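Appendix B.2, paired examples.
Example (i):
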Amino acid sequence: MAQSWFRRVPAFATAAIACATAAVIAVILTIQAAVAAVEDRSETGPGGHIEDNVRDHAAPVPLTVSLLTAAAALVLVALARHDLESRRESYAKSALNVTRPLTSLAKVLALTALILAAFTLLAHLVGSHWW
């Protein structure tokens, strides 16, 4: 039983890093699409809606992906840390030494992606009304 948990916690931490990295990449793609949509909108002049340009550049898809994968990464971090703390005596010291930095990195990446995605979503909701 302890062997399966030993493998499970680092796997949670590694999956959390993968999700967090995907969330950061998705935020970057969202910002690139948003910039392209704003550039297209500024070239059209007074007619048109920013919503059309945002849809043309498919900005909502990576925004949704970034929000979901960042949330998934935070859940995986919580699972890894909870399992590690609740079964501390079952783990070797090496599992503790590996899991803590992995979960910390995943947490920082996921929170960064989540905050940037939330700001991007907020800017879209506010800006689409005025422009």
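Example (ii):
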Amino acid sequence: MTHPYDYYYRPGMPLRPPPPRAVASDLWFEPRKAMLGAWIDVRREPAETPRTRLMADHLWRPPQQHPAT
């Protein structure tokens, strides 16, 4: 049995909604502002753009398994 969001994205496919774990956190606001504030307008919650939607879809992917070294 597969999960309804278990799929491989191809351009033009509808994007999945952000997973429940993808929530804006005040914990990361100040570090983001310190690192990126000189170049972009840092907001508490990111604006929804094609790129942020693709990132939200990407967050459904499981962590990458790296081979033991």
